[in-house]
Amino acid sequence: MTVQDLPNLAAESNIIGVRFTKVGKLFHYDCSDFPEVQPSDYVLVNTPRGRKMGQVIGYVPAEQADKISAKSIIGPATPRDLMMKKLWEAKEVEALIDCREMVSTFGGFDGVKFVKASYNYDGSVLTYLYTTEEDHVNTGRLRRKLEQHRNTRVEMRRIGARDAAKLLGEYGACGGPRCCSTHLTEFSPISIKMAKAQGISLNPSEITGMCGRLRCCLVYEYEQYVEATKQLPRNNKIIGTPHGEGRVIDVNPLKGTVTVIVEESRHEVPKDQIIPLEELRALQEKAAAGCAKEGQAGPCECGARVRSGDNSNQETKAEAPPERPQDDQAQQDRPRRRGSGRSRGGSGRDSKGGGSNRRRRRRKPSSNNKQS
């Protein structure tokens, strides 16, 4: 979808994408109250950092528009607002020079680099952007001094190394303008794994950019390399080629070829001419071994067919109860012996108890006779 096609979506959606910097993130705003707003126009909006002026990039499609959280714009920018914006932008370089001079006189800002000074469109807020590797930097004294000198409210905002390189622009290691300052609106996470997958040397001078971080271009072809590598054999694998059996010494994912050494000579072989010898040998060994259920009825282990044969052995095995080990038989016999011993002991006690009761019964009549 091009920018020329975006205005055609105005009838479907009233959500516009607004950008505050040249190559920055898009923010969604509602322009229902101002239907005359068109792409490339400037509008005034409220942000967490105050009122700002942004440029309309285009209308957001209805299926992607977030109408609930989108705030309404204040209105289109007037010619006076646009003139004020240009006047204050012309003073940003002077404000940055003043800040750096004060830093040199104050001291205590070792390792801190002030990259840019940015005025609001009406000059109400002056924001200084700086980068540093330290955990905490006390900028309170400097901020108060700059507020007195510039006669406006000053804010200090810390940014990362990539954001600083994006503001500075210039050229990258490839000789062209930096990607972050030309078309990248957001930074993607990049790892050293991406450089390894593409076969790039891990020399820091070759994988790091001007910002000191891994280059953003490492992520561009990473997915293509991963998909192409899955279809090619890995290094040191023995394969068959039209030139004979050889060993893979290099993989070329984007070309779809591998470099094979065959009898001390190198050959570049495309993937459609590669013969997987290891897989073929494994299949031949399995076929030569035969089936473990030969002569028996039931499904084959490989699942290719159902064999017909004598199934009586399987039925007898299924009907016959499993034999119990001797240890299990001994464990089951022990409780029975204990139970039998208890019953014997119990019967003996009962017999003794019964005899005592008989004696007591005999004594009672004798005592009564004496009393009588």
Please name the defining characteristics of this protein:
single chain; 372 residues; alpha+beta; GMP Synthetase, Chain A, domain 3; 6-stranded mixed sheet; 4-stranded antiparallel sheet; 10 helices; elongated; disordered N terminus
How does this structure look, described?
It is a single chain. With 372 residues, this protein is α+β, with helices and mostly antiparallel strands. The protein is built from ten helices and 15 strands. The longest helix is centred in the C-terminal third of the chain and has 46 residues. Helix 2 packs across helix 3.
What's the order of the H and E elements?
A: EEEEEEHHEEHEHHHHEEEEHEEHH
Tally the helices.
10
Query: Rg, please?
Result: 43 Å
Beta-strand fraction estimate: 15-25%
Number of strands: 15
**Structural class computed from helices and strand pairing:** alpha+beta
Percent helix range: 25-40%
**N-to-C span:** 128 Å
Instruction: Tell the overall outline.
Output: elongated
Strand order of the largest sheet: 5-2-1-4-3-6
